[in-house]
Design goal:
With 501 residues, the protein is of the alpha/beta class. The protein is 24% helix and 28% strand. The strands form 6 sheets. It has a 10-stranded mixed beta sheet with strand order 23-22-26-20-19-16-1-21-25-24, covered by helices on one side. β17 (397-398) and β18 (406-407) form a beta hairpin. The structure holds alpha-L-arabinofuranose (AHR). The site of alpha-L-arabinofuranose has 10 residues, from loops.
C-alpha cells in the first residue's frame, strides 16, 4: 500500500493554464491537412480550419499555441505569408522534407486558428536569418492600431483591427538550426532584437521569450542570463520567458526506436528519460534564480515530448509517429512535473499538436483520431488556473536493470477553479497495480469522480480502431471518511480524481 498525503491548506503556487500549451510548426502534415485544408479537399472546414479537429481541440481547452516553428521559424519571412493567396511566394521547406511551402497559411490564418480554438497565441520570430527590421515590422503589422506602413498593410489585407500578441519568441534553437550561435552572440542579439518588439498599447504587453537551452546545456543558460542581465537593460518586460527544449528519445538520435514496437526495457528507458525533465527544470531554475530572484522570467518549455523513428513508409522529414499508452505515461509524468514546478515553469508546449511527434491528434485525409496523449491532456485540463497543493506520495523503485529504474508512481494535486481537489497519478509499472491510501488533511470528501487512461503498454488508436484507448470512468474509490480514500491504480495508467469537499 502506498500513501498519498494532501494538505489542502498549503498552496504552493498558481498553475498557469499555459503549462498545457501546444506547438504547431510548418512541418509535414502538422499545419497543412492537420489543421488547415484547401477548399477542394472535401474536408469540412470554416475558413480553411478543419471542423473535426477544432472541435476536439476546443474540448481540451488548449491555452496557447506556438507557431510557425521550430527550425522553420528562423527561415520564415512573414511577408511571404500575407496578402492574396495566389500572389504568395512559394519556398522550399529545407528543414522538413524539402517540400514546397506555398505560404497559404500565414499570420492571418494563424490568428484565425487561435480564434477558433479560443487560445492565446505565441508567435516565434526569425532571428537566425531575419533582420531586426523584419521582426519589428511583424510586431507592428500585428499589433499597431494607428496609421503606419505596417498597420496600413494589415488593413489592406482585410484586418482592420490589430491583434493582441500574447507571446513572441525571439528566435528558436539559436544554438542549432537557428544560426549555430554561441551563447554570448545570441544573448547580445537578443538584447538588440527584443528592443524593437514593442508594446504599441500600454495595457497589452507582448511577452518576450528568449531562446534557452537544449536539454542539459547549463552553460547556455548561464551565459545567456549573464549577458542579458547586464545593466543597462531594464528587467520588466525585457525578458518574460526563457525557453528550454527537451525531447524523450528512447534510443540514439540515429536510431530513436519505434513508436509501437518496443520491449519492457525500452518502455522503462523511455520513462526514465522522461523523468530527466525534473533534473533539467531544477538545474536551469537554479541558474535563473541567481539572476532573477523574483521569478519574473518564466521557464518556457516550448518543445517537449517523445521523438521516435517515423512510421515505416512515411516521409522521414515529416516526423509522423504513432502514440501508445507509453506516450500517455510520458504526458502524465511531464504534466505532473510542470505542476510541481509551477513557481518557475510558466508555459510548456507539447511537440507537436497534430501529425508530428507526440501529437494529440492524428489525421488521414478526412479521418481523425485522438491519441492516448489527447485523453491525458483532457483529464489534466482541470489543473489549468488551479492552485497547486502540497502533496506527497510514497513510491518504490521499479524497472528492469539498474540503469532503467524509475519510481512506480508520480502525482500532482491542485485546488481547481471549480472548488474541487484534482488529483492526477501515473502508474509507471507495466505489470503491477498498486493500492493507494490517500489522506486529505482535515477535510471531509463528499463526492468523488474519476477517470483513467491505461492498458497494455503498446495499446494505441488506429484509423480502423479509433477507440482502443479512451478515458474510462474510474469509480472503484472507497471513501473511508475523515478525508481518507482507498483505491487501486491499474498497471501503466494515468488517473484523475475530482474530489468535492
Ligand atoms: O519539433 C521538431 C524540431 O525539433 C523543431 O523544429 C526544432 O525546434 C527542434 O529541434
Amino acid at each position: 500500500m502506498f500513501r498519498l498525503s494532501i494538505n489542502p491548506k498549503s498552496h504552493k503556487g498558481h498553475i498557469n493554464p499555459e503549462l498545457q500549451g501546444h506547438f504547431a510548426e510548418h512541418l509535414g502534415r502538422g499545419i497543412y491537412e492537420g489543421l488547415y485544408v484547401k477548399e477542394d479537399a472535401g474536408i469540412e472546414n470554416v475558413n480553411g480550419m478543419r471542423k473535426d479537429v477544432i472541435e476536439a481541440l476546443k474540448e481540451l481547452q488548449v491555452p496557447v499555441l506556438r507557431w510557425p516553428g521550430g527550425c522553420f521559424a528562423d527561415e520564415y519571412h512573414w511577408k511571404d505569408g500575407i496578402g492574396p493567396k495566389e500572389g504568395r511566394k512559394k519556398m522550399i521547406n529545407t528543414h522538413w522534407g524539402g517540400v514546397v511551402e506555398d505560404n497559404s497559411f500565414g499570420t492571418h490564418e494563424f490568428m484565425e486558428l487561435c480564434d477558433q480554438i479560443s487560445c492565446k497565441n505565441y508567435v516565434n520570430g526569425n532571428l537566425g536569418s531575419g533582420t531586426v527590421q523584419e521582426m519589428s515590422e511583424w510586431v507592428e503589422y500585428m499589433t499597431f492600431d494607428g496609421v503606419s506602413p505596417m498597420a496600413d498593410l494589415r488593413k489592406k489585407n482585410g484586418h482592420e483591427k490589430p491583434w493582441k500578441v500574447d507571446y513572441f519568441g525571439v528566435g528558436n534553437e539559436n544554438w542549432g538550426c537557428g544560426g549555430n550561435m554561441l551563447p554570448d552572440m545570441y544573448a547580445n542579439l537578443y538584447r538588440r532584437y527584443q528592443t524593437y518588439v514593442r508594446d504599441y498599447k500600454q495595457d497589452e504587453h507582448v511577452n518576450k521569450v528568449c531562446c534557452g537551452a537544449n536539454a542539459e546545456d547549463f552553460t547556455w543558460t548561464e551565459e545567456v542570463m549573464k549577458t542579458c542581465f547586464k545593466a543597462p537593460v531594464h528587467l520588466h518586460g525585457f525578458m518574460d520567458g526563457l525557453s528550454l527544449h527537451y525531447y524523450t528519445v528512447p534510443g540514439t538520435w540515429e536510431h530513436k526506436g519505434s513508436a509501437t514496437d518496443f520491449d519492457e526495457k525500452e518502455y522503462y528507458k523511455t520513462l526514465k528519460k522522461t523523468l530527466f525533465m525534473e533534473t533539467l527544470i531544477k538545474g536551469h531554475a537554479a541558474i535563473m534564480d541567481r539572476y532573477d530572484k523574483d521569478h519574473k522570467v518564466g521557464m518556457v518549455i516550448d518543445e517537449w515530448g517523445t521523438w521516435y523513428d517515423v512510421e515505416p513508409g512515411t516521409n522521414p522529414g515529416f516526423l509522423y509517429q504513432q502514440n501508445t499508452i507509453r506516450d500517455a505515461l510520458v504526458a502524465g509524468i511531464n504534466l505532473n512535473l510542470f505542476n510541481k514546478h509551477c513557481d518557475r515553469v510558466k508555459m510548456a508546449n507539447i511537440a507537436q499538436m497534430i501529425n508530428v511527434l507526440q501529437s494529440v491528434i492524428l489525421t488521414d485525409g478526412q479521418k481523425m483520431i485522438k491519441t492516448p496523449t489527447y485523453h491525458v491532456f483532457n483529464m489534466y485540463k482541470y489543473h489549468q488556473n488551479a492552485e497547486l497543493l502540497d502533496s506527497f506520495i510514497e513510491t518504490q523503485e521499479i524497472g528492469l536493470e539498474d540503469e532503467y529504474k524509475v519510481p512506480n508512481l508520480t502525482e500532482s494535486v491542485s485546488l481547481g477553479t471549480d472548488g474541487k481537489i484534482h488529483v492526477t497519478i501515473t502508474n509507471l509499472s507495466c505489470s503491477e497495480s498498486y493500492e493507494i491510501e490517500a489522506a486529505v488533511a482535515d477535510t471531509e470528501v463528499k463526492e468523488i469522480s474519476g477517470q483513467v487512461v491505461g492498458g497494455e503498454m503498446h495499446l494505441h488508436n488506429t484509423f480502423e480502431e479509433p477507440e482502443n484507448v479512451v478515458a474510462k470512468a474510474f469509480d472503484a474509490v472507497e471513501n473511508l471518511g475523515n478525508g481518507k480514500l482507498k483505491f487501486t491504480i491499474p498497471a501503466s495508467s494515468v488517473i484523475h480524481l475530482a474530489l468535492s469537499i
